[in-house]
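Reagents: none. Just compute today. NADPH--cytochrome P450 reductase.
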Amino acid sequence: MAQLDTLDIVVLAALLLGTVAYFTKGTYWAVAKDPYAGSLANGAAAKAGKTRDIIEKMDESAKNCVIFYGSQTGTAEDYASRLAKEGSSRFGLKTMTADLEEYDFENLDSFPEDKVAMFVLATYGEGEPTDNAVEFYEFISSEDVSFNQGGGISEKPLANLKYVAFGLGNNTYEHYNSMVRNVTKFLDRLGANRIGAAGEGDDGAGTMEEDFLAWKEPMWKDLADSMGLQEREAVYEPVLEVSEKPEMDAESDDVYLGEPNKNHLEGKQKGPFNAHNPYIAPIVESKELFTVKDRNCLHMEIDISGSNLSYTTGDHIAVWPTNAGKEVDRFMDILGLDEKRHMVISVKGLDATAKIPFPSPTTYDAVVRYHMEICAPISRQFVSALAPFSPNDSIKAEMTKMGSDKDYFHEQVAARNYNLAQLLEFLSQGQKWNKVPFTIFIEGLHKIQPRYYSISSSSLVQKNKISITAVVESVETPGASHVLKGVTTNYLLALKQKQHGDPSPDPHGLNYAITGPRNKYDGIHVPVHVRHSNFKLPSDPSKPIIMVGPGTGVAPFRGKKAEDFIYADEWEAYKNDMGDSFEMLTAFSRDGAQKVYVQHLLKQRAAEIDRLLQQKAYFYVCGDAANMAREVNTALSQIISEQRGIPESKAEDIVKAMRNSNAYQEDVVTGGGYADAIPRDADSPANPVALSHLRLRWLRQRGDARFARGLSAQIQVDQEPNGKQPVQGPPDVFCCCGAL
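Predicted 3D structure written out:
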């Protein structure tokens, strides 16, 4: 045998290493995963080494119903949990919820026919799966999908699989609820048996909750008929247990006081930093952009140096909020928990598949302040769940009526902007709700979610600093008894006030624990992470660019030049840089009788717009999804139709083709002024702010070739589409950039 030289040994070693990598999938050298770096809601189920075989998992835990969820911000996961609880309490099903990314699906062809799978699927972005559903979607949609028993599409390998499905979408997007529609199509072609109609919730119409409630009742009937289930009186059956630990000191190093995981508890900043592990970043600059005192638009610079976080222009920064102290106090008081708010508690699952949404031991105060979405509007179903624990029979009857009567609930609760504690106060006139088990809030309320904001800085100029621009939200609804205040934007305002010397900031009467758990955020810090986006400028700098967007999206006030012309000095700088090649026109809705909207300005420049489109221009829209973005889409189709003399249906196809090729991109927000108060999970993008300012800054600071050729037009307007209630905000921005 010939002696191996060094190169032979290196090659053989590489081949061996590659072989091991292929068969072990990197198991032996993979970085150990922080137990909270995956889904923090996994609790005991997140332990290392757990099976990825869902059938094995169901057999081990004696389950006959699994509810899979594809969730971006937690809403779909919340609906999955609600289905699991209702299936158990009403029909005696042995239920579990399952994160789609935690299981493999090659053995779905062995799914027992006496069990059922449910799919709760949010659509994200431009008809895409949520991050945790990508692998499942790629597998199930493949034309050569193959299962363990060898069957392909033609063999109908999923003939034993019974399933139901509900989707979370937004009708203001072209690909409305495409995730649930496509998944049901793929499952059906593989022979799966869908029980009942697939449900579709519409966040764009504001009917998500009622859509869900309307869908699930006939679904349960169909499922009961299919599986021979008997309905019984539903009673609350906790899946978690809260144990008080009076012998433990809340200041103990082992007690979580709002820290999201063990590294943070130990005072370590250890990455990777993501949606389950924030970076505690210093705020190095903050300033007010409005010139009036009764409303606020914030500019903030956040330092990410040392975090290994990176971003490119167009990405989103997530800010992890904390609930306002005033609302925490209200919640504690009405539940009779005020005197033991700092009592140490331990939370554990009563079932191996139960998911605990935060680490413990902890305290009542920490759970309510840092982990529960206590300021969000209340669901009708949750009101029904609380009714049995009412302080007296008359309140119980009122709660029961609210839970069963959609119109009455809207009149008494939704239209008044009540959060949970406000409703309980109103109903009981201050009488304590001390019969309610704390577990019902852990299980029934959303986990507080990060809020996403468009990054308004250039990564090429300041890669270690991220700028955000955010309007502080305060929504007044006619007839409502309460003003809905943005959770995160008021938190940011408190940080800004603190940085500017206010020792006790309380924006809009709200106070915040701005120094964080154990004062770990002292020095003006905020927990953040970065989410990457497909909203990017074209890689080819010769491509023309058209940008359309409002200054602050759906801000709750009307634009007026003297008050709301944000970044005015930078607009002037752009004009100075480009001279005669830059033109800027402004119109503000309260400065004149004539209302001019973005879509009107597009049509005024119709010939120029069409010429740029024929030069393969990229078209960007940032702002309100329900009104402005839809109107802009329509206007663009009309421009193409009129300028080219083609039917509007053909023009619509051209716009769709632009979307499919990423030549038409949107970064739009849903939910009106509620965007900061309600965690969204269907097509839920960042808060759109100062799009054109951001893009022009990017181009200017980059020294892009486009700047040498200049901008054809730049127009600022205020937006009030369709003659509806004004979408109030600082100036909208239309920019047309190209090789002129």
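Residues 545-737 form a domain with the Rossmann fold fold (CATH 3.40.50.80).
Action item: order primers for follow-up constructs.
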